[in-house]
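=== Discrete structure encoding ===
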Amino acid sequence: MYLVAIGWLYITVMMALAEAFSPHGSLLGAAITLVFYGILPLSIVLYILGTPARKRALRARSQQQSRHPDAGGHAPGAAEPDAVAPVREEP
């Protein structure tokens, strides 16, 4: 996946350089070419193609937390060692 992205960036950089050094081209045109033909579409495609990996990582993280809900080693509910237990009020 990244090899195609690197190739696409290489092509768009070459297009931008050709625009910049062309007799009828400009640096603004080169920047627009680089952004709108290279960086913007490539970032969208890489974001979409990276979605399954992000979902897998999120799922693995949530399963890891469900297996070890209290990874700190403290008893549940004992946030502070000198915490006072709540008092139940009668209705």
